[in-house]
Design brief:
The chain has 138 residues and is of the alpha+beta class. Helices cover 24% and strands 37% of the residues. The chain is built from two helices and ten strands; from the N terminus they run E-E-E-E-E-E-E-H-E-E-H-E. The strands form two sheets. Strands 6-5-4-3-9-8-7 form a seven-stranded antiparallel beta sheet. The two termini are 22 Å apart.
């Protein structure tokens, strides 16, 4: 299955094929706070989301800015809920099962650790952090 790339506001195209982890979650919308089913794609240090598994993503969460990922049942009053907290916002989602929720929390946590260790290694080598070689300018 091949889907379109995500294009960020700076015009950088992000390939979302060959995901590290993917599947459906319900996400709370930013403005209206409605719950909407979205297809999530974890690739590297980015989480993309789209309306379906085959459509190009319309949103991205940059895990470089992630402060925490954890369960959020009490805050959302939804079973199997999780939250991703970044320096700019908190994103709430819920899965169909506890197993799926735990899978997402684990996968996102590993991505955060992997990316942060890559930054540390890059800074040790040349003093400059990796700027995200996964993307390319459109």
């Amino acid at each position: 299955m091949s889907r379109g790339a995500f294009v960020d506001p700076k015009g950088v195209r992000w390939d979302t094929n060959d995901a590290d982890y993917e599947g459906y979650l319900c996400k709370q919308s930013r403005w209206v706070r409605e719950w909407r089913k979205r297809y999530f794609i974890l690739k590297g240090s980015k989480v993309f989301y789209s309306k379906s598994a085959t459509t190009a993503p319309h949103g991205m969460i940059d895990l470089v800015d992630c402060i925490s990922v954890k369960s959020a049942e009490a805050k959302t009053r939804k079973r199997n809920a999780l939250e991703i907290s970044t320096s700019n916002e908190v994103i709430y989602m819920y899965a169909d099962s506890e197993r799926e929720k735990d899978g997402w929390i684990g996968a996102i946590g590993k991505a955060i650790v992997k990316h942060s260790s890559m930054l540390i290694n890059d800074e040790d080598c040349d003093g400059d952090a990796d700027s995200g070689s996964e993307g390319s300018v459109a």
